[in-house]
Structure formats: C-alpha cells, structure tokens
Design goal:
By secondary structure, this protein is of the alpha+beta class. It contains 10 helices and 9 strands. The chain has a 9-stranded antiparallel beta sheet with strand order 2-9-3-4-1-5-6-7-8, with helices on both faces. The chain is globular, with a radius of gyration of 17 Å. The N terminus is likely disordered.
C-alpha cells in the first residue's frame, strides 16, 4: 500500500505545527539518549502527549492545577513528579518530546529550538538534522555529522549559509515551489525513507522540561 505523505511522511509537521516548530533527527540514538544529550536528567523525564505538553507550555503559574485537562489534580504522585521535573508550577520555556523511528531518534518542540544547540552532540553516532521554523515564519536547517557541524542554512536563501553549501553537503536544492522548510522535510522523506505517523507524535512520549 502506498503511503500518503500528509499522513506518514515528515512534511505534515509544518502544517500541524503551523505557528512554530522544531524537528530534530538523530541517527542511532534512543529517545532517552537524545534527551540526555540536550541536558535532561533521566529522573526528570516523564511521558507526555502533545496536548498535555501544550497545556503546560501555555498555562500561567497562577492558574490552578485543576485546570489541566490531562492531569488529575488529586493524584499527588503525578503532581509531585511534574513539579520535581520542572513542568510545574511555572510553565517551562520549552518541552522536548522524543520518540524513535527506523533507527533514528526524533524530537519535537512547539515554539523553541533547544535541540538545535546540541546538534553536534546529537550526531555522535552518525547524522543529525534540525529543522526549525520560528513564529515569524523564518526557517533554518542545521546538519551535523559524527560530532561536527557541517552546514546551517535557510532554504531558498543560500547567501545566509554557514558552512558547506546545502547542495554540496546534502544534495538539497530548493526550487522555490513551496515553503523552504516543507521542501526540506520532503527531501528528508525521500533521502532517509523516514515516515513518521502523526498519531505517533500525538501520543505519550518521553518528555523533558527546560527553563
């Protein structure tokens, strides 16, 4: 059966996270290893769905915990775990949720780009990519290999490249037919053969909070 890219590829992420997003891919790492590489302590990793993470990011510190739809405020153990891990009472700056697909660890963030800062470390076992779109609609792609940062570029704006040109480093050419980050996500679908079901990213995944 043929896969439909909007359901099973990577390019759907740009629509599902339309305001801002970061997708990181790290070859050969597990989700927990990815989170450790970006600064998480394993004891502070909790399982969170995307809706739960979104609720935590958007709440105010003064909001009653009972307002959180995903959490039973009377479950003292769950509240204590989220508090000790930095998800409560103040909202974290970002939440990184990680999973795995076809020999790669992936990570998703709603608004920030913590994973991009650690891309060289995330490439210790092979390739690592970070695709980020900010709230103003600007996008950037970073690529590292075996601990070295190879290139950082804005699709469609080659004069803003740092490092090796994208065409030389990856064989990627932006033809301008669609948004640059969407074009690069489609390129990754084709080059890496990675198909990430939407349902898999919405369900509970290992997550870490950062301030």
């Amino acid at each position: 059966m043929n896969r439909r890219p909007t359901e099973n590829g990577l390019s759907w992420i740009a629509d599902a996270y339309s305001t801002s997003f970061t997708l990181a891919l790290s070859e050969g790492l597990s989700p927990y290893e990815l989170l450790r590489h970006v600064g998480a302590e394993e004891r502070d990793v909790v399982l969170l769905s995307r809706p739960a993470a979104y609720e935590l990011l958007l709440r105010d510190e003064e909001d009653p915990i009972s307002d959180l739809d995903f959490l039973d405020a009377e479950d003292e153990a769950a509240v204590a775990q989220l508090t000790s891990a930095g998800f409560l009472p103040a909202p974290p700056e970002t939440i990184v949720r990680a999973g795995s697909v076809a020999g790669w660890a992936f990570a998703l963030e709603e608004f920030h780009c913590r994973t991009g800062t650690y891309l060289a470390s995330l490439s210790e076992r092979g390739r690592a990519f970070c695709v980020h779109r900010n709230a103003k609609g600007f996008s950037r792609v970073d690529y590292a290999y075996r601990g070295d940062e190879v290139t950082s570029f804005e699709p469609g704006l080659p004069h803003l490249t740092n490092g090796v040109p994208a065409e030389e480093a990856l064989g990627f050419v932006d033809n301008g037919d669609e948004l640059g980050d969407v074009a690069f996500l489609r390129f990754l679908e084709s080059e890496l053969g990675i198909y990430l079901p939407i349902e898999e990213t919405e369900t509970e995944l290992p997550a870490a909070a950062f301030t």
